[in-house]
Amino acid sequence: MNTRTHPCEGGCTCGHVRYQVEADPLIVHGCHCRGCQKNSGSAFAINALFEAERVRLVSGTTEVISVPTPSGTGQDITRCSKCKVAVWSNYNMGGLRNHIRFVRVGTLDDPDRHPPDVHTYTCSKQSWVILPESDRRVDRFYKFAETWSPDSLMRLAVIEEVAGIKIS
Question: What Pfam families does the record point to (predicted)?
């Protein structure tokens, strides 16, 4: 059941950072790659992808920390400048580093609204994590046309046009 409606808000643990998202996610990833496991300190990360301009910092200050990724392209993690909680990341997904934000679903005020649409990198999933049979999953990464909704693909086409690149 899709319980998404926009806008939604979120923030860090200490409350210094507050942000608002003015759209439904393009897609929500449950990523099981070793990089997400290390960066989150957990078995996987859940990220809701949004156009960068639709994620607005409402209050507080952030800092950006660049970290390596298994793909070698790296990611920029935006954290609260006080409690250091990661609120979103920008990956160099096909050159879209400045155009798509991967919002950490756990930092949303109502994270239950955004369950994963797809589980990625299940090839490195922790063996004790049991995914529901009905959940979509891929060993590594997916093909956009087979995974994203038609509406999200149209939004991605706009991003690609603005960025002057094609990834889908």
Answer: GFA
